[in-house]
Amino acid sequence: LGGHSLLATRLTHRLGRALDIRVPLRLVFEHPVLADLAQHLPRFGDRHLPIPRAPRVRNPDGTITLPATSGQKRLWLLCSLDPRAARAYRIAGGASISGPLDRRAMVDAIGEVARRHEVLRTTLREEHGEVVQVVHPEWHGGFRDTAPVDGTPEGERELLARWTEAAVDLSEGPLFRADLVRRPDDTHLLMLSLHHTVADGWTLTLLLEEIAHLYCASVAGESPAESRPAPHPQYGDFAHWQAGSPRDEEGLAYWRDRLAGAAEPDLPT
């Protein structure tokens, strides 16, 4: 099949939707030949069960605490061992915008995206020895105009480097940031930055598509909040489901079997 983990994730997602089953990601790596993969799909013939909405209880400061996913816990550990990892696991991208720009509509569109997706307003912290997600009531990742660049490719690259290399604190956030660069020719550069604890490379593409949709709705005089329904499940719902899922135990059993007899790693503490 070839490819990488992001493509494998998209493949399992499409197979799951087409066949109405849950296809574990590890199956693609265990059986990289398509014919072999097809032979093993019947093992996972149980039908999708909807992920229920997790209970949400607000803390006195207005935040909501939810379980962290296994992937978030791994990244938290890695970033705790080496603070440089928090910066390394940042996903940055954006879009060049030509033509007239309605700044107010862009601000509203990005703010609405952050309102609709709890994970974009999420930070991580440790409570009683467990890593948890903290969903904040407001998004504080922007939005501001960066001073116009000097018009040279070098100046723009320097600006982007400073922006993408800024320090990241998983506990303080923000883990999703946005900024707008106004170029001398009145074109604009929309910059987005997300930490891998709340996004992946696929997320960035979907995020840009959603921002464009909501921006057009705002320019047309429509309410961004009404132009598209809020998604369900949210990432916190998935994390809550994963924490109580028997499939999680199946995954642990699989790795216990694969790693049985392996030498104990000497990790720095």
Automatic annotation (TrEMBL):
Q: Fetch the PROSITE patterns from UniProt.
A: CARRIER (PS50075)
Q: Name one GO cellular component term.
A: cytoplasm
Among InterPro entries, the record links this protein to: ACP-like_sf (IPR036736), CAT-like_dom_sf (IPR023213), Condensation_dom (IPR001242), PP-bd_ACP (IPR009081)
User: Source organism's superkingdom?
Assistant: Bacteria
Q: Which GO terms describe its molecular function?
A: catalytic activity; phosphopantetheine binding
State the Pfam families in the record.
Condensation, PP-binding
Span list, region Disordered:
223-244
Q: Where is the Carrier domain?
A: 1-45
Record PANTHER family:
FATTY ACID SYNTHASE, NONRIBOSOMAL PEPTIDE SYNTHETASE
- Return the protein name: Non-ribosomal peptide synthetase
